Amino acid sequence: MTDVTSREKVLKKIRKALTTKSTQEIGDVDLESEIFTASEEPLEIQFAQNFSALNGKFVFCENETEFIENFDFFIKDNNWKNIFCLEPSIKDVLAKGKIKFSDKEEDFMSTDIGVTLCECLIARTGSIMITSKQTSGRRLPVYSNYHIVIAYTSQLLNNLKDGLKFIRNKYGSAVPSMIATISGPSKTADIEKTLVQGAHGPKEIFVFLIDDVPLTD
Hints:
By secondary structure, the chain is α/β, with parallel strands linked by helices. The chain has helices at 6-19, 43-53, 64-78, 88-96, 140-143, 160-171, and strands at residues 57-61, 83-85, 113-116, 120-122, 127-131, 146-152, 156-157, 179-182, 187-188, 196-197, 204-210. The protein has a single domain, classed as Rossmann fold (3-Layer(aba) Sandwich).
């Protein structure tokens, strides 16, 4: 009689499980209920706390005028140069604020500060959702040393599921070929286990959140 090894016993059980139909009834799966307990904090506060915890830089602005004032302060305080922006609406705001920038392809390789919009902000994870359908495309959010994201309070969503639903509703059947979330600057400790921030992208990420939701009584 041939001895049966432990490995053969395990394989026999696996084969039997794959060929035997389970008698267990599988009910309807609830895909809509929230998994996480909802926070009582406003979405902007949730996002600010979670994004800051990921080493992101958060600046709240009451309007676009205050954004220009804050952005201009950061430019002067950090001696930022070579600002690049492709978003038409933001270019208008920067031009009105007399902030110098370039949108010419020949200047892209020398870009130090990349200014972009985003699709939405995910409050629960402190993440920025971007897609390839944006005017800034795939390159600008990852190429520049400093990534400046201009967002509005109307773009705040609770969780990633809401973000994906927003993308589907916005683009319909023409779903972007790239949908990504940015959760703070990239990090790596591959080399001698020394943590390096910004190894695979911008050194720092700033979110300037502009309030565009009218007050209600």
